[in-house]
Every structure is written in structure tokens, then in C-alpha cells.
Design a protein that fits this description.
CATH class of one domain: Alpha Beta
CATH superfamily of one domain: Periplasmic binding protein-like II
Distance between the termini: 28 Å
Largest sheet: 5 strands, mixed
CATH architecture of one domain: 3-Layer(aba) Sandwich
Helix content: 40-55%
Strand content: 5-15%
Oligomer: single chain
Structural class: mainly alpha
Shape: globular
CATH topology of one domain: D-Maltodextrin-Binding Protein, domain 2
Radius of gyration: 24 Å
């Protein structure tokens, strides 16, 4: 498949004609500068996992939890029979709050006495004892059998599957009926997938998270996972050369580096860099989404091989980085640094093109006009201009489960359900009503320090959200909670606050490409879309979403391929000539096939074909 022929090349002079009638809508934002994406793609487009850890979770410790699963399943059935089906989770009359251990990503560990924690305890009778999740920690805990009450399977889909198969996870259907009405309202399709597809009709064992709903009037503030985001201030300074392909983009980056060769601290500036702790993200996502690929072809919905085909988008990505290397604009540390170091380089101006939307230049280092945006012309596709319509979220990756060994299954479900109620979700994301926000003139609005912080980019109290517990429990959010007042659970995502908080750099870019009245980049991207500068889609492939988890052999082979490519990608990128690149690429493909990749791919395609039939029935 020649994916470049999917979308025709467009000139962007037409966007000015469309600017006048595309200034509506609002945008999505993220907590304190951005949501965290942690999933790394392996050779099969899945979370990177360890086959050894998979085997460990299937051992004696899992068997030891099976009896607890049966006991608790019976207890849950009894409880569901007698409990009133309600979404209100309250402290039992005269009872003491219970402590539940919860492992989840990006949290400060332990029991916390924040305002949000207190509100959760008051509403549910639960005190949360946080455990910070890493993939290794989750696998170690699963192998030990010493399980927390609630588990967020943070990039560990294999662990979720093994725990379900071994009886270490509690079946949730009766709990959902008794205490999960908010969950059933927010993610009915996600829960249907969990039971009918993931566990093949046996029971609901996991709760998907990060589901999204599309609203074509509400663009993201500045895209999200939208490919290469480039320094607008420096692009403008060199005269904004018109671009029509990726080679033009590399030439522009070279001009930008020549214009600004060092930072204020004297460090050398590069156009591009990379990072290593998210798998092959710079190639499989940062580049691939510029052509409409994100694990599959977003425009056709088809699963397409990336590794054995020398003309695939993956190998074109490697060639793109190789061109940058030979032009002297690719950071030599791209093959060794981690994501936080990469983000720091973007922040300080050492890297001019950000491979992840939320990593932005610091105004302290780079000036008030510094911002990384999606420049028009170079690439034909804009990923995530709007939130995708994804009712199944991240499915088993980042899903939630309740341990079969918990002593408080009802409370565990009540906690998860409350955090996904209108009240709980608004509290989790926006803070305490009457203290952080309130209803003013009929609409929910920030007040107090929360408002002052919002208007000053957290300058009043930079640690305020952390001290209050705001956003601390977003890993337990299933998404798609839509308050009846018509405003998002995170008030900062509403149009009023996006406009109120638009920076000078955002306004400058937006007005240039979006016309008078445009104040944030998402509005400019809407104008570009209308002018035919790029295409986008909001549809997820149901067939891909409904594929069965990879079997052990496919997982093992994909992991081997992923590890091989990560170990050898630098050599291929640093090829000095086209002939050397083609030779190195051919050797890599030969080595990949030797792992059994062709057999693994055939299994994935058979899985995909079966999922297409399943999708028709599922719809």
C-alpha cells in the first residue's frame, strides 16, 4: 500500500479563505501542562511487556488466589442480591472508613490528607492508600500474589490477562449491578467489550479507562499526539517558508537551526531528537501519525504490516530520521535519552520539533512567543484534532481490576463508581465545590486560588493542585463522564477558560492561520482542515479494538522484534549513504523474519479478520 497516495498534497494558501467561518468551538487541555501518555508500542502495536514476567504470574501465587476468587465471588453475589442498586456510595451508618490500597500511575505514595481525599472518604467511606505503578512493580506484585485492592494495569495488558485466567481478579458483574450505575452509564460499550470479547462472555473482570467521545465543535487546544510540533516563533523569524512535503520540512528545520544554533546557555540546538523509554514511539507514532497511522491505518481502518515491508511507514520514519542525521539536525543523544530528558531539551530550546504535543518550550528559557505547533503543508494528516470516538478506551492496557483477595469488594466498586459520577469526576478534576469552583450566574466557574492559578499559569501557588489532591486520581477515570450542567468535569477544558488562558504565542499563531477571532491553535487547525491542508478522522477501527489479546508466541516474538529494533535503530539511522541505509534495512528485516515475525503477523491478521466479523455483530 502506498499510504502517501491516500491523501493528496494540498496547498495551504486556501486556508485564509476558510478562516472567516471557522471560529467556533473550544478545546481540550491537560492537567498542569498535559496528560501523561505512558504506553509504548511494540512490534505488534501493543504495550511492551515481558514474556518472563507473564510466565511468573501463572505460577503458584496465582493458584493461591483462586480460592479467594471463588469465596469473594460468592460474597459479591450475596451482597448484590440484598443491596439496593444505587450509584451513591456513602459511609456505612456508624461505620469507620476502610483503607483500600490502589496501585496506579503517577502518584505520590501513601495515605494523603488532601481536600479531595477527604471528599472521597466522606462520599464513599474509603481512605485510599496510593501505590505508584511502574510496569516492573505491577509484574512483581502480580507474581508475588500480595495484591492491592484495586489495580490499574499500567501498560501491563499481559498481567491483566494472566490474573484473570488464574482467578486473581474478581468478577465484577454483580458489583456493577449493585454499585456501578455511573460506570454503566458512562461506558456501556466498554463494559460490553470487557465481558463479551475480553473474557469471552464469562464475566466482567476489567474496567476500561480513557474512553473518549467526539464533539466536532470542540477541538483539542493544540492537538494531542499529533506528530511533530514545531517552534512557531523561529519558523516565523525565518520567513515562514512554504512546505509541501517532509523534505521541505527537514530543510525548514535546518534553516531554523542555522538561525538559532545555540541556546542562551550555549548548548547546541537540534531540529529533532528522540527518546528510548516509550519503545519505538518516535518512529511508530511521532512520524507515523503525520500520515494517518496509529497502530493501524486510521483513514482506512486496516491493520498494515510495519516491519517486514521495506516501504512501510515505519521504515520511512527511520529513513526520515536518517536524512535528519546526515543533515546534522538530529540530536546524537536521540538514541540514549529518556522521555523526561527529551522534554527538558524541548523546554530549554535545545530541540525545535517536539515529538509529543504536551512537551513545549518554556517561556522562561525561550521567550513569551515560543510555542510548538503543527505547521501547515509538510504532512498530510492531523491526528487528534478532535477527541476520537473511542468507547472502549485503552481496553486492557491501563484498565482497572479488583483483586480477588480484597476484603472490601463492595467498597472498591463504590470508590471507582463514585470517581466516575458527575460529582466525583468534577471533584477529581476541578476540586472542591465552594472552595475551588462554584456555580456563579448559573454556570460552574473556578474561584479562589484555583482561579488565580489558572489566570497566572500556576504562578500564585505552583503546588496548589498537588496539595489539594486535584488530578491525583485520574488513572481511575474511565472517561466519557458528561455532567448534566453541560460543562466538562475539568472546567479548564471549557471554551470560556481556554479563551481566558490563551497565551500570547497561542493567540499569535491562531490569528495568523485562523483569522480574526481565533485565539488558540485548535481553531487554526479547524481552518486548515476546512481549507484542505490536511485530513483527520475521529473514528476508531472497531475491528482493531475488538481483536483478541496476542497469544504468548505472538507476544514473545513481538517483544523480540521490539528489543532488536531498539538495539539497532541507531546504526540504521546513522547510515551515511542511501546504499548503506538500504543494506542495513534489508539486514534488519532479515533478522526480524528470523524471529518468526511472519508467523506472528499471520496470526495477527487472522485475529484481525475474525475481529472484523465480530465488529459487525458487536455494532
Amino acid at each position: 500500500m502506498n499510504y502517501r497516495k491516500v491523501i493528496g498534497s494540498k496547498k495551504y494558501t486556501a486556508l485564509f479563505l476558510a478562516a472567516a467561518f471557522l471560529l467556533g468551538g473550544c478545546a481540550g487541555s491537560a492537567p498542569d501542562g498535559g496528560a501523561t501518555i505512558t504506553q509504548s508500542a511494540d512490534a505488534g502495536g501493543n504495550a511492551v511487556t515481558s514474556a518472563a514476567a507473564q510466565n511468573e504470574t501463572g505460577g503458584s501465587s496465582a493458584t493461591a488466589t483462586a480460592g479467594a476468587a471463588a469465596t469473594n465471588a460468592a460474597a459479591v453475589t450475596d451482597a448484590a442480591t440484598t443491596a439496593a442498586a444505587t450509584s451513591a456510595a456513602v459511609v456505612d451508618s456508624g461505620g469507620e472508613p476502610v483503607i483500600l490500597t490502589v496501585i496506579m500511575e503517577n502518584v505520590d505514595e501513601g495515605i494523603h490528607d488532601t481536600a479531595v481525599d477527604k471528599a472521597i472518604t466522606e462520599a464513599t467511606g474509603v481512605v485510599i492508600d496510593r501505590i505508584n505503578a511502574t510496569t516492573d512493580k505491577i509484574k512483581m506484585i502480580a507474581a508475588s500474589g500480595d495484591l492491592p485492592d484495586i489495580i490499574q494495569f499500567f501498560s501491563t495488558a499481559d498481567v491483566a490477562k494472566n490474573m484473570m485466567d488464574s482467578g486473581a481478579l474478581l468478577p465484577l458483574d454483580d458489583l456493577l449491578d449493585a454499585y456501578g450505575q455511573n460506570l454503566k452509564k458512562a461506558i456501556p460499550i466498554g463494559l460490553k467489550w470487557s465481558k463479551d470479547i475480553y473474557s469471552q462472555g464469562e464475566a466482567t473482570y476489567i474496567i476500561p479507562t480513557r474512553t473518549t467521545k467526539t464533539d466536532m465543535n470542540i477541538p483539542y487546544r493544540n492537538g494531542f499526539v499529533s506528530g511533530f510540533m514545531t517552534r512557531w516563533d523561529i519558523y516565523k523569524a525565518i520567513g515562514m517558508p512554504e512546505m509541501s512535503n517532509e523534505d521541505d520540512y527537514l530543510d525548514v528545520l535546518k534553516q531554523m537551526v542555522d538561525y538559532s544554533p545555540t541556546t542562551a546557555d550555549g548548548n547546541k540546538v537540534y531540529g529533532l531528537s528522540g527518546w528510548t523509554d516509550w519503545g519505538l514511539w518516535p518512529y511508530n507514532i511521532s512520524y507515523a501519525v503525520c500520515y494517518g497511522f496509529y497502530s493501524y491505518d486510521r483513514l482506512t481502518g486496516e491493520l498494515v504490516d510495519q516491519y517486514a515491508d521495506p516501504d512501510s511507514v515505519f521504515w520511512d520514519a527511520v529513513k526520515f530520521y536518517s536524512k535528519a542525521w546526515n543533515m546534522g539536525i538530529l540530536d546524537p543523544e536521540a538514541f540514549t535519552i529518556k522521555s523526561d530528558q527529551y522534554a527538558d531539551k524541548v523546554s530549554t530550546g535545545e530541540v525545535l520539533a517536539s515529538g509529543f504535543t504536551n512537551w513545549q518550550p518554556s517561556t522562561e528559557y525561550c521567550g513569551e512567543e515560543a510555542i510548538c505547533v503543527k505547521l501547515p503543508g509538510a504532512f498530510p494528516y492531523m491526528n487528534n484534532l478532535y477527541a476520537n470516538e473511542n468507547p472502549m478506551g485503552l481496553r486492557d492496557t491501563h484498565s482497572l481490576g479488583i483483586s480477588a483477595s480484597t476484603k472490601h469488594p463492595e467498597k472498591a466498586m463504590q470508590l471507582i463508581d463514585y470517581l466516575n459520577s458527575e460529582e466525583g469526576a468534577r471533584t477529581m478534576y476541578s476540586g472542591i465545590k465552594g472552595e475551588d469552583w462554584d456555580i456563579i450566574d448559573g454556570t460552574p466557574q473556578f474561584i479562589g486560588v484555583r482561579l488565580e492559578n489558572f489566570l497566572t499559569n500556576n504562578a500564585v501557588d505552583p503546588d496548589y493542585n498537588t496539595k489539594r489532591g486535584i488530578w491525583a486520581y485520574y488513572p481511575l477515570s474511565v472517561g466519557s463522564v458528561q455532567p448534566s450542567d453541560g460543562y466538562p468535569v475539568e472546567l479548564a477544558d471549557s471554551l470560556d477558560y481556554i479563551i481566558m488562558s490563551a497565551t500570547p504565542a497561542e493567540r499569535d499563531f491562531a490569528s495568523f492561520y485562523g483569522g480574526e477571532g481565533a485565539v488558540f491553535p485548535g481553531q487554526a487547525y479547524q481552518t486548515m482542515l476546512a481549507a484542505g491542508i490536511f485530513e483527520t478522522t475521529t473514528n476508531e477501527s472497531f475491528a482493531v479494538l475488538l481483536m483478541d489479546p496476542n497469544d504468548d508466541d505472538v507476544t514473545r516474538i513481538n517483544n523480540q522484534v521490539d528489543q532488536y529494533l531498539q538495539a539497532n535503530i541507531a546504526k540504521i539511522v546513522m547510515s551515511a549513504t542511501d546504499d548503506e541505509f538500504e543494506s542495513n534495512r534489508a539486514k534488519a528485516i532479515e533478522d526480524i523474519l528470523a524471529f518468526g515475525y511472519e508467523e506472528a503477523w499471520d496470526k495477527r491478521m487472522a485475529n484481525y479478520e475474525a475481529a472484523k466479523e465480530r465488529a459487525e455483530a458487536f455494532n
